[in-house]
Amino acid sequence: MIKRVESINEKQLDFIRKTVGEAFVTNELFHDWGSVSERRGSVMTYMSLYVDYVYRARCLFANEEMTGFIGLEDSGKKKVWPQIRMLFGMVFRIRPSKVRRMLHFAKQIGKSNDRYAKKRHLDVLMVCVDKAHQGEGIASELVRFAKKVSDKKGIPLLFDTDMKDYAEMYQHLGCELYNTVTADNGVTRYSLCYHR
């Protein structure tokens, strides 16, 4: 059963930050921050800030065992303050050159999901499974949960990923790949949608 993560203590939140950070260290989004070992610290910091944003915005969900996490945000109910907090954290905790590169990349791929994103939708902010539990069907369970929320709200569910394998997994789980954009850093953004 998947449910919203709320009222957890700092130790539990730190566990989620580390789990998500480790899952994203090898993500293509960060490839121009250096080799995996060179970028590890910066990616862990960024993903920690991102997890805090998703948690504070009340968009973080997990399975009962806390081995799989998904962020789901209704575009009609976005929380601005957690985003501002995350941006301030980036400015003070991540090297400015890395932030500039990320913002440059984000600007290039920012409109990749315009086909659906201009109307109310559900954004998948992240899907993450603890490395020790990958291959157990947890990601599929998280995506099925997101699809049910989408069906209940009657709005499309949007996925953006920079990993071809993940795009293929989402397609296998019933999502339509409707756009790809490759930025000048060589990273391709795959935009997918699920709707009834």
How would you characterize this protein structure?
- There is one protein chain.
- With 196 residues, the chain is α+β, with helices and mostly antiparallel strands.
- It is built from 7 helices and 7 strands; from the N terminus they run βααββαααβαβαββ.
- The chain has a 7-stranded mixed beta sheet with strand order 1-2-3-4-5-7-6, sandwiched between helices.
- Strand 4 (122-129), helix 6 and strand 5 (157-161) form a beta-alpha-beta unit.
- It is globular and about 40 Å long.
Query: Could you give the distance between the termini?
Result: 22 Å
Biggest sheet features = 7 strands, mixed
Subunit arrangement of the protein: single chain
**Shape, please?**
globular
Structural class call reads alpha+beta
Fraction of residues in helices?
A: 40-55%
Query: Any low-confidence stretches, pLDDT <50, length ≥5?
Result: none
Q: Strand fraction band? A: 15-25%
Count, helices: 7
**Mean pLDDT over the residues:** 93
Order of helices and strands: EHHEEHHHEHEHEE
Strand arrangement, largest sheet?
1-2-3-4-5-7-6
> What's the number of extended β-strand segments?
7
> Radius of gyration, rounded?
16 Å
Secondary structure layout plus pairing:
Blueprint: E1 2-4, H1 10-24, H2 36-56, E2 60-63, E3 68-74, H3 80-93, H4 96-109, H5 114-117, E4 122-129, H6 138-153, E5 157-161, H7 164-172, E6 176-182, E7 188-194
Parallel strand pairs: 4-5
Antiparallel strand pairs: 1-2, 2-3, 3-4, 5-7, 6-7
Helix pairs in contact: 1-2, 2-3
